[in-house]
Amino acid sequence: MKARHLQVILFVICSLLFSPVGAQTVTRTQHRAAMAQDAVTTGDVTIRKPEYICISTDGGKEQLIMDGTKFTMTMGGKQHVTDSRKNAQFATFHSVLKAVINNQPIPTTDELTVSTKNGQKTLTITPSPKKRQLFTSFVLVVDAKTSAIRNLRMNGRKGDYTEYMFK
Question: Residues 116, 135: contact at Cβ < 8 Å?
Answer without folding.
Answer: no
